[in-house]
Amino acid sequence: MFIHPVTEDISLKLVGQEDAEELFTLVDESREHLREWLSWVDSMTDAEQYEPIIHAWLRQFAEEDGFQAGIMYKGDLVGFAGFHSINYANRQTSIGYWLAQDYQGKGIMTAVVSALVDYAFEGYDLHRVEIRCATENIRSQAVPERLGFKKEGVIRDGEFLYGHYHDLLVYGMLENEWKK
Q1: What is the distance between the alpha carbons of residues 95 and 45, in angstroms, rounded to a whole number?
Q2: Biggest alpha carbon distance in the chain?
Q3: What are the tens digits of pLDDT across the range 135-178?
Q4: How far apart are CA 116 and CA 122, in angstroms?
Q5: Do 108 and 98 touch, CB atoms closer than 8 A?
Q6: Using alpha carbons only, what angle is made at residue 159 by residues 36 and 145, rounded to the nearest 5 degrees?
Q7: Helix, strand, or coil (residue 141)
Q8: The whole model's pTM is what?
Protein backbone atom coordinates (compact mmCIF):
# COMPACT_ATOMS: atom_id res chain seq x y z
CA MET A 1 0.00 0.00 0.00
CA PHE A 2 1.15 3.53 -0.79
CA ILE A 3 2.67 5.26 2.27
CA HIS A 4 4.34 8.65 1.95
CA PRO A 5 6.43 9.73 4.98
CA VAL A 6 5.97 13.38 5.98
CA THR A 7 7.88 13.59 9.28
CA GLU A 8 9.07 11.06 11.84
CA ASP A 9 5.55 10.93 13.34
CA ILE A 10 3.36 11.77 10.31
CA SER A 11 2.71 9.90 7.08
CA LEU A 12 0.10 9.73 4.34
CA LYS A 13 -1.43 6.33 3.66
CA LEU A 14 -3.59 5.27 0.75
CA VAL A 15 -6.45 3.49 2.52
CA GLY A 16 -8.02 0.21 1.51
CA GLN A 17 -11.32 -1.49 2.27
CA GLU A 18 -9.78 -2.90 5.45
CA ASP A 19 -9.63 0.68 6.78
CA ALA A 20 -13.37 1.43 6.43
CA GLU A 21 -14.20 0.69 10.07
CA GLU A 22 -11.33 2.80 11.40
CA LEU A 23 -12.32 5.66 9.09
CA PHE A 24 -15.95 5.47 10.20
CA THR A 25 -14.94 5.46 13.88
CA LEU A 26 -12.68 8.48 13.39
CA VAL A 27 -15.44 10.46 11.66
CA ASP A 28 -18.06 9.33 14.17
CA GLU A 29 -15.93 10.43 17.13
CA SER A 30 -15.41 13.89 15.57
CA ARG A 31 -18.84 14.19 13.94
CA GLU A 32 -19.91 17.45 15.61
CA HIS A 33 -16.54 19.06 14.94
CA LEU A 34 -16.37 17.95 11.28
CA ARG A 35 -19.95 18.67 10.28
CA GLU A 36 -19.44 22.41 10.67
CA TRP A 37 -17.46 22.49 7.40
CA LEU A 38 -18.04 19.12 5.68
CA SER A 39 -21.40 18.42 4.07
CA TRP A 40 -20.99 14.64 3.82
CA VAL A 41 -20.51 13.89 7.53
CA ASP A 42 -24.18 13.42 8.47
CA SER A 43 -24.82 11.01 5.61
CA MET A 44 -22.06 8.60 6.71
CA THR A 45 -23.75 6.45 9.34
CA ASP A 46 -21.84 3.15 9.13
CA ALA A 47 -18.53 1.74 7.92
CA GLU A 48 -20.04 0.00 4.89
CA GLN A 49 -20.91 3.37 3.35
CA TYR A 50 -17.17 4.09 2.99
CA GLU A 51 -16.55 1.03 0.80
CA PRO A 52 -17.61 2.62 -2.53
CA ILE A 53 -15.86 5.85 -1.57
CA ILE A 54 -12.62 4.01 -0.81
CA HIS A 55 -13.00 2.21 -4.14
CA ALA A 56 -13.35 5.59 -5.91
CA TRP A 57 -10.27 6.91 -4.10
CA LEU A 58 -8.24 3.88 -5.19
CA ARG A 59 -9.46 4.36 -8.78
CA GLN A 60 -8.48 8.05 -8.60
CA PHE A 61 -4.95 7.03 -7.56
CA ALA A 62 -4.70 4.30 -10.24
CA GLU A 63 -5.81 6.75 -12.92
CA GLU A 64 -3.15 9.25 -11.78
CA ASP A 65 -5.80 11.85 -11.03
CA GLY A 66 -4.39 12.66 -7.59
CA PHE A 67 -5.22 10.77 -4.42
CA GLN A 68 -6.99 10.90 -1.09
CA ALA A 69 -4.83 9.67 1.77
CA GLY A 70 -5.32 8.97 5.42
CA ILE A 71 -3.18 11.09 7.72
CA MET A 72 -1.32 8.81 10.11
CA TYR A 73 0.06 10.35 13.31
CA LYS A 74 2.17 8.05 15.47
CA GLY A 75 0.48 5.10 13.77
CA ASP A 76 -3.12 6.31 14.23
CA LEU A 77 -5.49 7.53 11.53
CA VAL A 78 -6.28 11.16 12.46
CA GLY A 79 -7.64 12.76 9.27
CA PHE A 80 -7.52 12.92 5.49
CA ALA A 81 -5.89 15.06 2.85
CA GLY A 82 -5.38 14.89 -0.86
CA PHE A 83 -5.87 16.29 -4.33
CA HIS A 84 -9.43 16.77 -5.57
CA SER A 85 -8.32 15.98 -9.12
CA ILE A 86 -5.53 17.02 -11.47
CA ASN A 87 -5.97 19.29 -14.45
CA TYR A 88 -3.00 18.23 -16.56
CA ALA A 89 -3.86 20.61 -19.41
CA ASN A 90 -3.40 23.59 -17.09
CA ARG A 91 -0.94 21.81 -14.75
CA GLN A 92 -2.94 22.55 -11.61
CA THR A 93 -4.77 20.92 -8.73
CA SER A 94 -6.51 21.76 -5.50
CA ILE A 95 -5.99 20.31 -2.04
CA GLY A 96 -8.63 19.37 0.49
CA TYR A 97 -8.10 18.28 4.08
CA TRP A 98 -9.70 17.57 7.45
CA LEU A 99 -8.37 16.57 10.85
CA ALA A 100 -10.05 15.03 13.90
CA GLN A 101 -10.60 17.56 16.66
CA ASP A 102 -8.22 15.96 19.18
CA TYR A 103 -5.26 16.31 16.79
CA GLN A 104 -5.53 19.98 15.92
CA GLY A 105 -2.88 22.43 17.05
CA LYS A 106 0.03 19.99 16.68
CA GLY A 107 1.26 21.20 13.26
CA ILE A 108 0.07 17.99 11.62
CA MET A 109 -1.96 19.58 8.83
CA THR A 110 0.65 22.19 7.99
CA ALA A 111 3.26 19.44 7.57
CA VAL A 112 0.87 17.31 5.50
CA VAL A 113 -0.16 20.13 3.16
CA SER A 114 3.48 21.14 2.72
CA ALA A 115 4.28 17.55 1.69
CA LEU A 116 1.32 17.54 -0.72
CA VAL A 117 2.47 20.78 -2.33
CA ASP A 118 5.97 19.28 -2.76
CA TYR A 119 4.37 16.20 -4.34
CA ALA A 120 2.23 18.33 -6.67
CA PHE A 121 5.22 20.24 -8.01
CA GLU A 122 7.81 17.45 -8.00
CA GLY A 123 5.76 14.27 -8.44
CA TYR A 124 3.10 15.57 -10.84
CA ASP A 125 5.16 18.45 -12.35
CA LEU A 126 2.29 20.90 -11.83
CA HIS A 127 2.42 24.69 -12.00
CA ARG A 128 -0.34 25.74 -9.56
CA VAL A 129 -1.92 24.47 -6.34
CA GLU A 130 -5.10 25.93 -4.91
CA ILE A 131 -6.79 25.67 -1.51
CA ARG A 132 -10.31 26.90 -0.82
CA CYS A 133 -11.57 27.57 2.71
CA ALA A 134 -14.80 29.01 4.08
CA THR A 135 -14.31 32.64 5.09
CA GLU A 136 -15.41 31.71 8.63
CA ASN A 137 -13.08 28.70 8.91
CA ILE A 138 -10.09 30.38 10.56
CA ARG A 139 -8.27 27.11 11.41
CA SER A 140 -8.40 25.93 7.81
CA GLN A 141 -7.20 29.31 6.52
CA ALA A 142 -4.21 29.19 8.86
CA VAL A 143 -2.68 26.28 6.93
CA PRO A 144 -2.18 27.97 3.53
CA GLU A 145 -1.30 31.24 5.25
CA ARG A 146 1.48 29.56 7.28
CA LEU A 147 2.82 28.01 4.08
CA GLY A 148 2.97 31.30 2.19
CA PHE A 149 0.03 30.80 -0.17
CA LYS A 150 -1.34 34.01 -1.65
CA LYS A 151 -4.92 34.94 -0.81
CA GLU A 152 -6.34 35.53 -4.29
CA GLY A 153 -9.98 36.34 -3.70
CA VAL A 154 -13.41 35.31 -2.50
CA ILE A 155 -15.92 33.12 -4.27
CA ARG A 156 -19.24 34.48 -3.09
CA ASP A 157 -21.73 31.78 -2.09
CA GLY A 158 -19.17 29.22 -3.25
CA GLU A 159 -20.42 26.33 -1.12
CA PHE A 160 -23.88 25.21 -0.02
CA LEU A 161 -23.71 23.65 3.41
CA TYR A 162 -26.63 22.67 5.67
CA GLY A 163 -29.21 24.95 4.17
CA HIS A 164 -27.17 28.05 3.42
CA TYR A 165 -24.30 29.30 1.31
CA HIS A 166 -20.78 30.13 2.50
CA ASP A 167 -18.24 32.37 0.85
CA LEU A 168 -14.92 30.70 0.06
CA LEU A 169 -11.43 32.19 0.20
CA VAL A 170 -9.15 31.09 -2.61
CA TYR A 171 -5.45 30.61 -1.87
CA GLY A 172 -2.93 29.88 -4.62
CA MET A 173 0.68 28.79 -4.82
CA LEU A 174 2.74 28.73 -8.02
CA GLU A 175 5.65 26.35 -8.54
CA ASN A 176 8.25 29.13 -8.81
CA GLU A 177 6.95 30.74 -5.58
CA TRP A 178 7.13 27.45 -3.67
CA LYS A 179 10.69 26.73 -4.77
CA LYS A 180 11.91 30.07 -3.36
Answers
A1: 25
A2: 45
A3: 999 999 999 999 999 999 999 999 998 889 999 999 999 999 99
A4: 10
A5: no
A6: 75
A7: helix
A8: 0.93
